[in-house]
Amino acid sequence: MTEPQIQLRALRKIYPAKGADVVALDGIDLDVPRGAIHGIVGRSGAGKSTLIRCLTLLERPTSGTVTIDGQELSGLPEAKLRSARRRIGMVFQHVNLLDSRTIAGNVAYPLEIAGVPRAQRASRVAELLELVGLADRADAYPAELSGGQMQRVGIARALATEPAVLLCDEPTSALDSATTRQILGLIRDLRDRLGITVLIITHEMAVVREICDSVTLLGHGKVVEHGALGDVVGKYGSHLARELIPVPDLPLGVERSLVEVAYSTDDVATHVVLAAVAALGTDAEIAAGTIETLAGRRVGRLQIDLPDDRVEEALSRLHSAGVHAEVTR
Fold first, then answer.
1. 283 and 174, same structural domain?
2. Domain end: 233, 255, 286, which one?
C-alpha cells in the first residue's frame, strides 16, 4: 500500500493552565493519501488551528508524531526542520502580502530566503504567475488587486519551493461565493497538474462539498468522524452527513411530526424513494428536501410532514422499501 503523504499518529497538544491543563489535541490519528484533497472541519475550539500549527511544527506537539512526505518532523532539530518545511506550502485566510513588493517580488520572497539564484528565481516566479492566471500582473502591487487575485498570489507564493503538501487555512472565508468557487477550482486544477496533496482547514461545508475527496470532523480535539466523502454521506444519521447534505429551513406553521428520509443512489434509486413517500398517502407531505450529486453519487434528504398517529406506519413502510427513515420531531 502506498505510504500516506500526511500521517499523524497519537498527536496530542496540551497547554498548561492554572487549575487544569487545556487539551487542544487528544490523540489524533490521520492518513492523507498522495494527491488527495482532504478537509478538516469542526466548530470553533475543536482544535483545527492547533492541528495546522502542529503539522508545520510551528507548535511542537506534546506527544505523537507528524510525518510529511515520508519524513518524521516532530523529532527534527530546528535547522533540519527549516529545510523540511520547504516541502510544505501554506495558504492563509489573510494572505499577508508585503505591500512594498510587487506581485512578482512577493512570490519570489520564499525563494530568496531559500537562497535560490536571481535568474532561477525570475524563471520560477514567471512560471508560477502563469500557473495561477496572473502573468500580466507581475509588476502590480497588492493594493491594486482584488481579494481573489491576492489569494492567487498567496497560492503562487506557497508553491514557490515546489512543496509536496499544500496546507490551506480557511483559504476562502474572506471571499464572495463566486470568487470562492474560482479559488477552489484553481486548487483542484493545481492538484491535478502538480500531483500535490492538499489539506484544507475550513468551517464551510460548501468548501468540502466542492473540492474534497475525504473529510475529518474534529470535536474537542478528537476525531469524531472521518472518511471518503462518498462514504461519509452514506452514513445517513451522522453529523457530517447532515451538514454535507443540509435540508432547507422548514416553512412556518409545520407542527405535525417529521420523518427524515435520507438516501444515496448507490443504495436505492430516487424514483423508488419518491414512490415510497407517495405511497404514504395524501396526508403525508414533503415539507423540505434537497437532492444533489456529491462525490459521484446522487444523495438526498427529505423531511416528511405527517400526522402523529401515522409515524410508526410510515417508518415501517419506508424501511420495507429499503429507504432510511427516522423521526426528527
1. no
2. 233
* Same domain, residue pair 220 and 289: no
240 within a domain of the structure (yes/no): no
Show the domain range for 284: 245-327
Tell me the three state secondary structure of residue 223.
Answer: strand
**Helix and strand totals (H; E) in the chain:** 11, 14
Pair (193, 253) in one structural domain: no
Q: How far is Cα 157 from Cα 152, in angstroms, rounded to an integer?
A: 9
> Cα separations (Å) of 187 from 106, 158, 324?
19, 12, 35
Per-residue pLDDT of the chain (329 residues; tens, 9 = 90+): 467 899 999 999 999 888 788 999 999 999 999 999 999 999 888 899 899 999 999 889 999 999 998 899 988 888 888 888 888 999 988 888 999 999 999 999 999 988 999 999 999 999 999 999 999 999 999 999 999 999 999 999 999 999 999 999 999 988 899 999 999 999 999 999 999 999 999 988 889 999 999 999 999 999 999 999 988 988 887 888 888 888 877 666 666 888 888 888 888 888 888 888 888 888 888 888 888 888 888 888 888 888 888 888 889 888 988 888 888 87
C-alpha cell of 76? Answer: 527534527
Q: What total of structural domains would you count in the chain?
A: 2
